[in-house]
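ok trying this again, last paste got cut off
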Amino acid sequence: MFDLEENRKKVQRAVLIGVQDSRMSSEDAERLLDELEELVSNLDIPVIERMVVKLRKTHPAFLLGTGKVNEILALVKELEADVIIFDDELTPAQQRNWEAESNIAVIDRQEIIIDIFSERAHTKEAALQVQLARMEYSLPRLRRAWTHLSRQRGGGTGARGQGETQLEADSRMVRDRIAVVKKELKEVIQHRHVQRAKRLRKPVPTVAIVGYTNAGKSSLLNTLTDAEVLAEDKLFATLDPTTRRLQLDNSQYVLVTDTVGFVRRLPHRLVEAFKATLEEAVVADLLIHVVDVTNPDAEKHFETTMEVLKEIEADKNPMLVVFNKIDALEDPSDRERFLFTHKDALYLSAKTGEGVAELKEAIAHHLNSKYRSTELLIPHDRYDVIAKLHGSGGIRNQETQDEGVYIEGIFPPALSGIIEPFIKK
C-alpha cells in the first residue's frame, strides 16, 4: 500500500479530482474540492491541477466512466503528476485499478484525513485511535503493496507465490496489531472514564465547545479562560480534548472542554474512533456550538456538526449556538440573514473579545436554570461541608451568623445529599 505519511516528501505534483453527483450543485462540489485542497496543503503536498467530474452513474471498476478515466489519465501523464487524490471515497478495488492504469499513487479523502489525524494526535488515546483507524483502512488495501510481486511470480493455476504468502502474513500481522491496539485503547479509555468520574464527583458544571474544524473553537477557549491552547488557522489544528476552568461573573466556575472539529465527509471509521473523545460532549451540561460566520458554507457546517452530535446522542443536550468571527464580516446584512434562521444565536469574535461577556452571561443563565438557588445554614463546626461547597464554585453569598454560616448559591445534584440537612426551610 502507498504509505502517504512515509512518502509525503516524495510527492511533488498532485492532481485533485472532485466528484459531483446528481444531488450536488456545482458550487457545492467546488467548495468540497476547496476543502480537500486545504486538507492536502496541511500535509505540504503541492497541487498542480484540480477538476470536478460530473457523475451520473457510479461505475464499480473506477467509480467514473471510461471516458472520464481516459481523460484524467491523459491529464496526469501530460502534467507528470505523481499522485491522484479523489475527494470521494474509493473502494480498495477502485484504488488498485486506478494505480494499475496510471502507474502512480492514487488515494482518497479518507487517507488524507487519517494522515492529518496521525500527525496531530498527541495524547496516547488519540494516537491509538488514529493508529486503529489507519490499520482498519489499510487492511483491505494490503494487496496494493504486493501487486508487483504477483506480476512477477508466474506459475500455473493454484500456484502460491511469494506475493500471496507475504500478503497473508501481512494480513495476519495487521489483524494481530489491531487486536493489541483495541486492548490498549480499552485500557486507556477506562482510565479516562475513572478520571472523568472523579471530576464529575467534584460537582462542577461542564461545558463542551463543539463545531466544524477551523471554526475558532480553540481560540474561543483561550479567550474565555485565558488559556494557551494551540489555535492555528488550519484544519484539525488540535485533536485532543483540552479542559480549562472558566470563572463566571457570579463567582461560579465551570469546566470548559474544547473538542475535535468536525468536517464534511469525515471517514466513518474516524467518527467511531473518536467517539471516546467526543464523549465529553455527551456528558456536558451545556454545549457551545461554534460556527464560522464568514464561511460561505456556514449552514452546511452547522448541519454537519448537528449530524455528528446526533450520531453520538449529544444533540439533546442544552446548546448555545455561537457565530464566531463577526469582526471579519464585510457585509452587515449577513448577520441579519443568520438571525432569521438562528434567532437565539449569539454573535462574537474570539479574536477581539466582542460578545464574549454576553456568552458568559448566557452560560451562567443556562446553568442557573438547571441548578436551583439554595439557602443553607451550616453549623460552625461543619467547615468540611463549607469547603466542599467552595470547591463547587457555586457560592453566591456567604455570611457568618451567630447560629452558623449562611450560604446562598447554586449547587449541582451531586451535592444534594450533603446539603440536604442544612437547607433553610
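PB: full thing came through this time. The longest strand covers residues 47-54.
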